[in-house]
Amino acid sequence: MKSKTPSESRTVTTDLILPSETNHLNHLFGGALLAKMDRAAYITARRHSRRIAVTASVNHVAFNTAIPLGSVVTIEANVSRAFTTSMEVFIDVFIEDRISGERTKANEAIYTFVAVDDTMTPVKVPEITPETELEKSRYEAALRRKQLSLVLAGKMKPQEAVELKSIFEIE
Ligand SMILES: CC(C)(COP(=O)(O)OP(=O)(O)OC[C@H]1O[C@@H](n2cnc3c(N)ncnc32)[C@H](O)[C@@H]1OP(=O)(O)O)[C@@H](O)C(=O)NCCC(=O)NCCS
């Protein structure tokens, strides 16, 4: 299977935040943002694998900045690493200033998708070749994140998480 680059499956969505999606503080409701990120990340995983993909895990979400009603929100989803049947998708969320148009990063998240066939059996996905410095650093750290996710899910023994353990070993 031919390796692909993140740009081949990158997904960018832009949306206007309306009252139906906000909480009592007039900020975007966290659950609504999770759904928007899941959608963009799913499209990315599907484009990379050309298969049905299911969300296996939400590994990390950081709601760093509240997103006010009326914001224009851009979500960018990239495959940061592909393993055997799973793909880590990194999601960056930006808001833009109404006057200057300047983009500010508001939130980020990391989801794991698994490519499956019609019987929900996991199937192999193409490898990914990172190109930019950011893509390379996210690729490098992805194996540790996968091990952490599997340990937390009870699917891997902590002592088997070799790459993850190495970052806690202080000389
Ligand atoms: C996702 C799912 C197919 C995985 O099934 P499974 O029996 O754990 O399959 P496997 O053990 O073969 O794992 C498949 C891959 O998922 C990875 N994986 C499974 N659970 C994971 C987790 N919590 N975190 C990170 N990766 C995980 C495995 O490491 C493996 O990756 P690899 O093949 O790239 O090494 C299954 O749990 C499922 O169908 N879940 C429901 C999905 C769903 O309904 N999502 C929400 C709606 S889309």
Your description of this structure?
Helix content is 29%, strand content 32%. The protein is an alpha+beta fold and 171 residues long. The chain has one domain (6-130): Roll (Thiol Ester Dehydrase, Chain A). Strands 1-3-4-5-2 form a five-stranded antiparallel beta sheet. The protein is globular and about 50 Å long.
Please give the order of strands in the largest beta sheet: 1-3-4-5-2
Task: Please compute the radius of gyration using only Cα atoms.
Answer: 17 Å
N- to C-terminal distance: 41 Å
Helix content: 25-40%
Number of strands: 5
Shape: globular
Give the bound compounds. coenzyme A
H/E series, N to C?
HEHEEEEHH
The class by helix and strand makeup works out as alpha+beta
Unreliable segments of 5+ consecutive residues: none
- According to CATH, the fold-level topology is Thiol Ester Dehydrase, Chain A
Text of the CATH class: Alpha Beta
Summarize the main sheet. Answer: 5 strands, antiparallel
- Annotated CATH architecture: Roll
CATH H-tier superfamily: Hotdog Thioesterase
Distinct helical segment count? 4
